[in-house]
Amino acid sequence: MSNLVNRLGDFLTTYTKSIILVMLVVTVLIGAGMAQVEQQSQTEQFETDSPAADAQSYIEENFTLDEGSNEAIVQVIQRGDNVLSKESLLESLSLQQEIRERESISTTFVDDRPVFGYANVIANAALSSQQESSDANAGPPTLTEQQAAIESLDKSQLEGLIQRVLGEDGSERARAFMPASYQPGNTTAESGSTVIRQKLDIEVQDPNSFPEELTTAQLEIRDLAQDRDSDFSLFGFGLLNEEINQSLGDSGAIVGPFALLFVVVALTVAYRDLLDIILGVVGIFGVLVWTFGFMGWAGVAFNQLLLSVPILLIGLSIDYAIHVFMRHREQRIEGDDSLSVRNSMSFALAGVGAALVWVTATAAIGFLANLTSPIGPLQDFGIVSAFGVFAALFIFGALIPALKIEIDGFLEARGIDRKKRAFGTGGSIFSGLLSSGVTAARRFPVVVIVLALLLSVGGAYGASQVNTSFDETDFLADSPPEWTESLPGPMAPGTYQITDDLDYIGQNYQQEDNEAEVLIRGDVTNEKTLQWLDETRSSVSDLETVFVGPNGPAVTSPLSVMERTAAQGAQAAQIPEDERTQRQAALAGFATLYQQSTGEDGVPNQNVEKLFTRLLEVNPQAAQFVYQADGETKAIRLQFGVTGDARIGDIAEDNRNVASSIEGVSSGGLSSTPAGDQVVFDKVQKDLLDTVIQGLVITLVAVFIFLSIAYRLTGNPASLGVVTLVPVALAVTWILGSMWLLDIPFNTLTGTITSLTVGLGIAYSIHISSRYELELRRQGDVWKALDTTVTGTGGALLGSAATTVGGFGTLAFAILPILQQFGIITGLTIIYAFLASVLVLPSMLVLWTRYLGPSGYFPDSDVEPPEESTPSSEDQPATDAQTE
């Protein structure tokens, strides 16, 4: 192994010009794939195969309206002290007028009543009263007429009208525009809803395919509403998709420059040399070019998770650069004065190269453990991160050393001295701090290990309390902090308000697309089917997660659609036959059939198949709840609105219970499958937790096997691999305990933290163990070996840890909370791994040497370690496989 490492080091430092040429060509070829990288932001990409997902797909494919009749809904919620006042009603109507006059908005409208809300209900009621008294011919009222009708009312007339229209005897459809807190008949309300309906040519499944013109119109509607005196909360699919996409771009625009600035500052502190700083930055850009180019060629779309990968690779690149450069500096300062730049780099690569290969392999193992996850974006995260780690190895193991040799050699040939002292060496303050772990290992190693284990017990308890979270709002940005207002144009974030709007709408209104669903198949035309639905409706109404508005629980099924359609038919039946339209005649006929089929309990108990067929004929909207094919009813659908602040797990549990109750009341005659985003997302949450556990187990086992074999192949006991891994395992418990204390859940990003902790953290332990084993053989004394290891390699580790933590710390500037959490928790991961390697691992290495390792390395007296001697040039280079 040592001969192979030596030959590789000699090769990389001998043919530097050829290596530079080849690496640059490869970089150009791989980087060409960057142009093919696409962006993907929809939450559906996280969904996994499950009965709920299959049921949801079935619903989306079959419970659809006719082509061309799909709609996009925009909810506009007007808020104030009393939106039922004359001023607020007129403001709502005025806003509608402005919206209708904006051509770019109105061209997206459906043909029939595209804008309608609570103010229109009251205005139309006022107009109806006036027309009755004047015996005028009623026609579709214009907004101008509606405004005039409201203007003509005095306070008492307006309040009386509101009590009649929105009271118990008023219209349920009218009360549907009021918030959940509204009591029927009240003349005051804190908010009111207006619905805007836009035309969709097809049903949109992928947010990225949502028509751009509809999104633009929704953004314009929000701008118009924000210019009003009242507060407005809006929700629309285009608004949601726009802010999710915008949050990705804005987070990158803020974090990217901050990360680059930090890299320059960090490298300045560590290197204190302009040329080395430039080389480090060039290497980082090379790694990013390789990674994004790979994504393009591999067809991996850029998503929310992958936003953290550039920061991750920046931190790792700095890590690799520091270890190579600092080892090279050690060789030049402490080695033979006759060593040239080329020979010093050869020795440095021979010494640090094997450790970097091991670090790369173990980090890749940690990342690739995510391939066991059924969640696609997590698999992409693992693959891309693993490739990026190998890219860092090639760039900083071949290209950057070759560039440094050529440039330093060129400068020294002209009399410019390029010798620099390695960070953390030379008796600096950092040397003293790093030696504290050695002091503790010498005096009370058992106590150190016991304390670390006790801390891990507490961390393990906290780990069992960490929640799992997956929600669409995880990918929505909060309102940017005030300091971002002073950022230059390209970095300044846009406006974000949909998170706050969603919170308000979800608590007070039945939010669009926020429903739980049950797909019902089997004997759906049984004469008792509608009665079973009625029994289920009663049980659903008692659930805490169900949204309860002014009209009661929001439960929709074929039965409720029939009831509303039959009520319309009853009204149409009051019209003389010769005056009815074709639709009115059809509605009246349906009402007659419904009445004839109804039993004593008021629910139809016969002619069920015929009722389904006639319902679809007279009310096309029923196709959302009844699916027929080849003249037969194949399935029906139950839907109930849920509160916006209910936990996904609670909604999913209630949904599953509803599905079970349907099968229960039907005695197995119906097959019910829970569906809806909440059930699907709940499955994602469970998959995330499985990913955390499986990723940790697989990573620990794989790394243990790899290290045991690697150390064994290089002539060391396999037990050294176990000792190297234990501090990292302890760090895992510490980080999970910290997540509990900081109330950070497992989500799509933090769910990778266990495998990431092992994959990144093992690097610190490998560097310490490998250097210690080498120094132990070189110096023949456990204390000298430990001291040299911790002050030499530990200095590089300290610089590496500080820069990596700082790199991830820049994620705290991201406007996405999920990225902020990932930055915090990953930064803590690096800190814990570093502390475990320099404080706990030395004590474990002492005990390993005493009981399991090679013998003869302890001095006769442990009171004072022998004086350290400076190794001779014959001891250089450090060429064994496990050197740092």
From TrEMBL:
InterPro entries: MMPL_dom, Mycobact_MmpL, SSD. Its main location: membrane. It is found in: Cell membrane. Gene3D superfamilies: Multidrug efflux transporter AcrB transmembrane domain. Residues 859-884 are annotated as: Disordered. It comes from Halovenus rubra. PROSITE patterns: SSD (PS50156). Pfam families: MMPL. This is RND family transporter.
